[in-house]
Amino acid sequence: MHKTPVTKHAKTCAIAIGTLTCTFAFAGPVQDNHGLTDLIDRLGAGNEPTGAGVEVAQVEAETTNGYAPDPDDPEFAGKTFTLMNGTSGVSNHATNVAKRMYGTGNSRIAPGTDSIYVYTAEGWAQSSFLNVGSGGNPASPPGNVALFNNSWIGSFGSVSLDSQAVRRADWSIDASNAMMLNGVANSGEHSPLMSFGFNCVSVGTAVGDHIGGVIPAGYDTAGCQIPLIVAVQGTTSNATGIVSGVTSMIIETAETHPNTTGNYFATLSETIKAALLTGGKHEAAWSNNTEISGPNRGRTIQPIDSMLGVGTVNIDNSWQVMSGGQHASSTSIGGLIPAPHAGWDTGIIANNQSKYILLDVETPADEVSVVLTWNQTVNSGFGSYSLVDLDLQLWGFDGSSLVDITGDAGLSVFSDGNVVSESAVDNVEHLYIKNLAIGQYILEVARSNSSGSSKVFSVGWLLPESDAVPGDVNGDGLINVEDLLMMLAAWGPCSGGCPEDINGDGVVDVSDLLQLLSYW
Fold this sequence. Notes:
The chain is an alpha/beta fold.
């Protein structure tokens, strides 16, 4: 069968005498930069997710040496590589990406992942997976693959074929719930494969040393912003490996945490994406061009930063969102129960419908992050999409009515940021609010101007944790025998954020007891 050639470009820093040599601008260890150190402090060493049990796929541009990581590298001991496009020599590029994605050395983030399927970019885009240029659907992910890492860029040299490839990838994400983490170009100009998708997660570098901004005209996603998230690495290839590793840890949490295990919605691609993006850490330079004065203060049509997306990937933040569990939204503002400080909801929304979630801010919130995302549906034949538009807004709540906090009404409510995100093109909406005052608020997910069937959406939120005294189970400001007795009475599985579960792992057990005694 004739195969359309794909122009592929491995993302490299600099090539010197055939050896990949990269200069990285790390502010500190990989684990510190991406929240893993904080998560280990939170849960205790050995209790953090590692990507264990999550099967992944790594797609690489083939070089003269091959396309696969070095299976004999000590960082990959005990890991199984399945080569999907024939035998391969060692690709230095693939090895470097793999070390960040699932290696066991200092540059790693998720060392527990041990089953990896490896493709060439050309094979994956054509007969091995996406089946571009054929009449058939994309293949099913092999084994139990939950995510694809695409640390390559390319083009068929045809807008039509590039668009078909992206649509096929979006169809696969929606149909199989497999995440796709796709690097953007490091330099030059935008490259459509594979970051131009609606349903994927596009990845850049935390210093903004990549091609970002809006997707150019001529593509289905024209006007959408990329990248969606960044990592502290010197190239977008390696940054994508870090984000893929964090994603595998979120997936493991969804599958194993007591608050989410057995919940079908927790493992949907929309939910994983919402948890990942909600956790993004915003640096000082971050901006989504929110109106800062006048009647539209607090509104934006640009959900994310033009170069940094939602910010730097952070597993501690994203773990809080996922492990907070599902808190169901409602079509009415009456009778709402306050949501936990971190959590998510994934549900179905009809045209011209709104869904509401109550947030109770008990102490001033220095930062609030909320992300709404949904998949766009690829039509039969992979020639177009059926697009849905959703918006996101935070309202004040007086106990019975919604209170508008845009414009001057919000001056005493929040110091900076946006309480409305209303892009007409992106399928991600994002609220980032600074210094939100004490009070009750209602989060609204609204659908309009999009006819058709009901749509799955996912929204995640992250507010500061309570300022309560650690270990003070009964809230009296003391750590004493009363707290101990309450903990013993609550021994065992604990769902819904009970105070006895000090480390937040969903179980009141000896770990919580030891932690309480350390606060005595």
